[in-house]
Amino acid sequence: MTVIDVHSHYVPRGWPDLAAATGGDGDWPWLRIESERDATIMMGSAEFRRIRQTSWQAEARLSDMDADGVDVQVVSPTPVFFSYPRPAGQAAKVARIFNDLALEICAPAPQRFVPFCQVPLQDPDAACAELDRCLAAGHRGVEIGNHVGDHDLDHPGIVTFLQHCAEVDAPVFVHPWDMPSAPRLNRWMAQWLTGMPAETHLSILALILGGVFDRVPDTLRLCFAHGGGSFPFWVGRMDNAWHGRPDLIATSEHPPSHYLDRFFVDSVVFSEPALRLLVDTFGPGRVLLGSDYPYPLGERPAGKVVREATFLSEPDRALILGGNAAEYLRQRPG
Fold this sequence. Notes:
By secondary structure, the protein is α/β, with parallel strands linked by helices. 38% of the residues lie in helices and 15% in strands. It has helices spanning 18-22, 58-68, 88-106, 124-137, 156-168, 190-209, 212-215, 235-244, 272-282, 304-308, 314-329, and strands at 4-9, 29-33, 38-43, 46-52, 72-76, 113-117, 141-145, 172-175, 222-224, 264-266, 287-288. Helix 5 (156-168) links the parallel strand 7 (141-145) and strand 8. The termini are close together. The model has no long low-confidence stretch (mean pLDDT 95).
């Protein structure tokens, strides 16, 4: 069995000056190199995140994968580089820069790294064009943020892009990003601990109540990070609202629970009861192994909760560790 981790991120060890490369002003991400192994992503003069060589060095990633028993790793962008608030032309240039660097990071082990690209999602034509370029160059799918400003995943432009992904058979990994900031959310990493789950929940709901799943083909392969956020816990509440307030909520052809087989979720939920909820809600065929490697809020060893879960049968465990991801990626299991 091939063990496949569908949720990991990369950061290159340096990139061109983005202001000069795009012609844009303001604070752009840059990397402050501190040693051969350590660096900090900067936003202007502010520290965003400290990272290690596992973000960019294939050998370091492979060593950790071997230690964790992971055979294949999907390598996706870090959302801070999406550039959705920028003009589309600038975001397209940033996407091209990072997508090309991602291929360089993955090149030493093409059988073990599966690169996913980023696109300028604020412009559907440019996003489709960059996806096509990346698929031709060696990327296997695309990671997108869960919204573009106030536009959620049911916005017509984003739906156009999702339809294109279905047409070209490209899997889509949806990651929360750009969480709201407020005094109550700026303590204790509350944006990550409460905002991220809420963002993912909202965007799945937008796909359902916005009628997207009623319009796009069921060949579209979507996976949501972090176990689908808070969505799995509240399916019953959403169904109850759909039936109880159809004047406001019943904007989809069916209640929310009808659409649970239209997307995957990853397994980064950190406890056996939470994993059981995912399996009970979506079925064992809709949960994919994910780790959020190499960041501190990720799971190490990758797949620990799945491997140790006492409620899983061995066939279901095998599905979550790799079989489902092989379907999502259209990859033959080993």
